[in-house]
Specification:
There is one protein chain. It is built from two helices and no strands. It has 78 residues and is an all-alpha fold. The chain has a domain of 49 residues. Helix 1 runs antiparallel to helix 2. It is elongated, with a radius of gyration of 18 Å. It starts with 8 loop residues before the first helix and ends in a 5-residue tail after the last helix.
């Protein structure tokens, strides 16, 4: 089995900080967009919540792809 490189703590802390910052911004903005659309079109509360959750899930998917790219450019090991 190939020996793994040690964990680079500076890169790891950078990745964690970016995940928290970008995740909060992206998911929060997505959730707020769902809330705004529900209010703008005066939708029922249940439908508005469904739109909010759908937009939040889109935000989480965006965060996943962002983090995948960030880890590729800032490797944790090595």
């Amino acid at each position: 089995m190939a020996e793994q490189k040690p964990i680079n703590l500076q890169n790891l802390s950078t990745i964690i900080a970016v995940m928290i910052l970008v995740g909060t911004e992206l998911v929060g903005a997505s959730w707020a967009a769902g809330w705004a659309i529900g209010g703008l079109f005066q939708l029922d509360g249940t439908i508005s919540r469904i739109i909010e959750v759908a937009f939040a899930l889109i935000g989480f998917v965006g965060l996943y792809f962002f983090m995948r790219t960030a880890i590729r450019h800032e490797p944790i090991r090595g």
